[in-house]
Amino acid sequence: MTPNASVPQPPIRVLIVAPSLDILGGQAVQADRLLQYLSSEPGLAMGFLPVNPRLPGPLAALQKIKYLRTIVTELRYAAALLTTVRRYDVIHIFSASYFSFLLAPTPAILAARLYGKRIVLNYRSGEAEDHLARWPSAIATLRMAGVIAVPSAYLVDVFARFGLRARAVFNVVDRRRFRFRLRSPLRPVFLTNRGLEPMYNVECVLRAFAAIQKRVPEARLIVANDGGSRRSLESLARQLDLKNAEFVGRVSQERSPTLYDSADIFLNGSDIDNMPGSLLECFAAGLPVVTTDAGGIPYIVADGETGLLVHRGDHQAMAAAALRLLAEPSLAERLAQTAHRQCELYTWDAVKNQWLDLYRGATVAQTSLSVS
Q: Which residue range(s) make up the domain with 228?
């Protein structure tokens, strides 16, 4: 070899630590999508470690027992961290808030520190402000990361208020999976697919739909997804005497494009939120959006341009906005077209180099992230 010959650089070994698709939620979907995209990138060697590992054989039955499943899953996860983290250069850790932060990202951060690995902490919860205010210990844990990455400028602003520097790398939507179409004629077929949990306030959507149905009796509502509030929400639907309101349960990622294509207006009632991937998928599918202004949503939905915004908890305003779209189908068409163009910001080509730069630039020294 001559002195000027270039020496091939070994690939950067990156381990993504995140929920698997056994827990169908925003973190799992984005982790799966990133893993698929990054695995085809030259110069990277990707791995995945689920925070919710399955126990082998007969031991799997333990994960069906409440409380016990948390203990046995956490033990399995901790053991996997100790044997896996040491084989990688960069540990890309997905993070939510509160007890989830304690059970999933915290052990991964400690294992990465133990082995002297570079850490990219990917914090994704819309509850960040309350979490950091109530759990100051979380701030100390976050400072152990070389890089904090968040999916929205909203969380960049939240973290800055706690003296933490974060970089925004947007969620990715694969537009190729969705059939973009303009709804013409615009039918009164509504969809909501957020988790059936209090923070997503699907109750607001049901109450809005009750008001819509008084004006448009043939209106239909599809309630997709599942969660701890499903039984109470089904009870509320009966109390409101809703007609044509169907709870279809959890819908797989493979079937989600068909779900979006079946509806004409999307309703989102969340009280706490960050950068919901479902709204980006609506943009890709041409599905007009009516949503609350919770958390980071106004950072991605411009009122009157890419969707219609209403105040959190205001089901009457949500109903009025939905009825406005039905009365002004040209508005719905314009919103859908503008939102679809906005999708360019959330493609893999738009965000790829940001992830690559973070992996290359994550500091081994794990320096402080305090904002000067």
A: 175-346
